[in-house]
Amino acid sequence: MVSEHSDAPGGESAALALKILVAGGFGVGKTTLVGAVSEIRPLRTEELLSEAGQSVDDTDGVDHKTTTTVAMDFGRITIRSGLSLYLFGTPGQDRFWFLWDELSQGALGAVVLADTRRLEDCFPAVDYFEHRRIPFVVAVNCFAGARRHGAPDVSRALDLDRGTPVVLCDARDRDSGKEVLIRLVEYAGRMHTARLLDSVG
């Protein structure tokens, strides 16, 4: 979850690097979010959609999509001095979910991107993180032309556990994506602290 390294002689200043997953359904904007916020050139493992995948990849609502992530996306963003986030974008299709267990090892938390035009596509990600007790926020990617829904409506539609944050965002916008990540770090920090207190109480 956390790696540390010293920035100064004698270990006076420890820098934290937190691992964050970016998950959600096919074509929801995971690669876009990682690329928008990353301060390094993001690592991408995208391949062109093929005819062989047409029978299993539902492209309704994302007809313009021509590539798909087949392993992961990776990026890095510095939130403030001494705090960096390593972002791992997960593949969205069912056939790549065997990678999720590896990617989730040591993660502080996750962002589940949602598209209200295809809200059901993020149910598997929500279930995955709830069952593994990995803190997550739902970030509604506000696509042009999509009907706008408030955070409470999305929370009810997804039957989220009480307190799970829902935020509206534009995955293409760096500042919007950064705000999502800050909300996640704050929420995950509260969740981990509460669990620690419970374990010693």
UniProtKB/TrEMBL annotation:
Record flagged with keyword GTP-binding: yes
One Pfam family linked to the record: ATP_bind_1
SUPFAM superfamilies linked: P-loop containing nucleoside triphosphate hydrolases
InterPro entries reported for this sequence: Gliding_Motility_GTPase, Gpn, P-loop_NTPase
Keywords (A to Z) from UniProt: GTP-binding, Hydrolase, Nucleotide-binding
Keyword Nucleotide-binding on entry: yes
Domain of life: Bacteria
Similarity annotation: Belongs to the GPN-loop GTPase family.
Entry protein name: GTP-binding protein
Origin species: Streptomyces iakyrus
